[in-house]
Amino acid sequence: MTQNGIVVVVSVSIMNGDEVLLIKENKLLAINKWNFPSGRIEYKEDILDAACREVKEETGFDVKLTGTTGIYNFISSSNDQVILFHFTGEITGGSLKIEEDEIIDSRWIKVTEIMHFDNNELREARVIRRIVDRLLNQKVHSITVFNNQLCKRI
């Protein structure tokens, strides 16, 4: 969702043990950039539902949101003010199917290895590094800070 140059975005670290799923984007402002599954919240959409929808659209997986690393406010490379809600999640169903128009690759990677990526390989590297730092230091809050609603089936 965009309003007056403010973009509201959700992203999800899909966890599997000490690994996380990254996707390689092929979007206009993020060609060949690694990121967590993410996207804009649609008008009147619940934040938690948006996070689950974006994961499903970009990866094919159904997820259960398990926590949040927080809310990040930054100016993007396209000069928009972004408010990003970042979650952690676990796969509950589906299978890996990347949408080849906007996503060109995916990779399970140890969380620690993300810190070794060059900044130009990551979309919004400063923010991704802050998220990874919180994941590594187990600074993940309960999902109940938002509410107890479960994701709707998409």
Structure description:
The protein has 154 residues and is α+β, with helices and mostly antiparallel strands. It has a single domain (2-142), classed as Nucleoside Triphosphate Pyrophosphohydrolase (Alpha-Beta Complex). It has two helices and nine strands; from the N terminus they run βββββαβββαβ. Strands 1, 2, 3, 4, 5, 6, 7, 8 and 9 form a nine-stranded mixed sheet that branches. Strand 2 and strand 3 form a beta hairpin. 31% of the residues are buried. The model has no long low-confidence stretch (mean pLDDT 90).
What key attributes describe this structure?
alpha+beta, nine-stranded mixed sheet, globular, 154 residues, Nucleoside Triphosphate Pyrophosphohydrolase
Please provide the count of β strands.
9
CATH architecture: Alpha-Beta Complex
N/C terminus separation: 19 Å
Q: What's the CATH H-level homologous superfamily? A: Nucleoside Triphosphate Pyrophosphohydrolase
* Share of β-strand residues: over 45%
H/I helix tally: 2
Portion in helices: 10-25%
| CATH structural class | Alpha Beta
Mean pLDDT: 90
From the alpha carbons, calculate the radius of gyration and give it in angstroms: 14 Å
Describe this structure in a few short sentences:
This is NUDIX hydrolase. With 154 residues, this protein is an alpha+beta fold. The protein has helices spanning 47-59, 125-136; strands spanning 2-3, 6-16, 19-27, 30-35, 38-40, 61-75, 81-94, 103-110, 141-142.
